[in-house]
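To illustrate the input format used throughout this study, we show a single complete record. The first block contains the structure-token representation of the backbone; no residue identities are included at this stage. The design step must infer an amino acid for every position from geometry alone.
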């Protein structure tokens, strides 16, 4: 049985209970972060902590603990659950004042903070990454503040189910003719020596992996263009890939049934995956 963290206590998972009036449960009034663990160490903890703080600020939600304490809780859960490879999931909600109301409860209501681990042995040596994934395009029907990492994940969940029903692995979402992002990742295409990914804004989540990968790409003398692109442009690209904290750099080999490049993982995506894994493991805490 896992040990999880809830509001100051380390508990067996079965004993961790949250109120039915918690606004996370009633209103999706909560934010989250997912930090990967490789070799027992946290990948880019700092990046996740900074984005968490931003999400909380945007929602005028109080941070239940300081960054250093948060790091200690992450480490303690990794230790107690003997996680070699896997992830730490963190969620903070606006808590409960014992009833349901659209209006935020008063400032003195304690936020709820929950952390748990997932063990994924050999996560970085994914066989899927060697083959690449297939995606379909779907309309982006999420709300307009996708830059905030909230727990409102119903549409991304529906998107994954649409992909599954179509015999695909994931979906890229399209709004006003342009790709926004994947259901749980940022989307990229490669043309020659240029990597193209959508510019930041309210329309997408600013990925922590995105930031690192773009930095490594520039350091490796690749060109980076942050702009929108269409599904048609992607289908005509040399390569495509996605990034996220738990899949790192994942090649995309097919979009809406049309093969990208040779229909196998491209050289740029493969190289970026290697660099990302190597550099982020070196910097892991
Ligand atoms: N976009 C969305 C919608 C996501 O859910 C995620 C994963 N949390 C990402 C992008 C990638 O972000 P990160 O690299 O920080 O995991």
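Output of the design step:
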């Amino acid at each position: 049985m896992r040990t999880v963290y809830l509001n100051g206590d380390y508990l067996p998972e079965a004993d961790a209970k949250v109120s039915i009036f918690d606004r996370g449960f009633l209103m999706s009034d909560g934010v989250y972060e997912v930090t990967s663990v490789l070799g027992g160490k946290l990948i880019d903890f700092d990046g996740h902590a900074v984005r968490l703080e931003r999400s909380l600020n945007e929602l005028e939600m109080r941070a239940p603990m300081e960054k250093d304490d948060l790091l200690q809780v992450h480490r303690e859960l990794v230790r107690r659950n003997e996680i070699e490879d896997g992830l730490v999931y963190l969620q903070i909600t606006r808590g409960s004042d014992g009833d349901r109301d659209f209006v935020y409860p008063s400032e003195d209501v304690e936020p709820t903070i929950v952390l748990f681990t997932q063990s994924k042995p050999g996560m970085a040596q994914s066989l899927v990454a060697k083959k690449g994934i297939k995606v379909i395009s779907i309309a982006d029907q999420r709300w307009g503040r996708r830059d905030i990492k909230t727990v409102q994940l119903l549409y991304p969940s529906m998107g994954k189910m649409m992909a599954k029903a179509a015999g695909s692995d994931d979906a890229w979402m399209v709004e006003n003719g342009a790709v926004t992002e994947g259901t749980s990742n940022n989307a990229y295409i490669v043309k020659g020596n240029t990597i193209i990914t959508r510019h930041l804004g309210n329309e997408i989540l600013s990925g922590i992996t995105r930031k690192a990968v773009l930095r490594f790409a520039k350091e490796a003398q690749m060109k980076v263009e942050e702009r929108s692109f269409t599904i048609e442009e992607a289908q005509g690209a040399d390569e495509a890939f996605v990034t996220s904290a738990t899949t790192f750099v994942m090649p995309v080999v097919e979009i809406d049934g049309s093969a990208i490049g040779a229909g196998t993982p491209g050289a740029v995506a493969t190289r970026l995956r290697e660099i990302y894994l190597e550099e982020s493991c070196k910097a892991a805490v």
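Structural context for interpreting the output: The chain has two domains: 3-121, 127-283. The domain at 127-283 is CATH 3.20.10.10 (D-amino Acid Aminotransferase; Chain A, domain 2).
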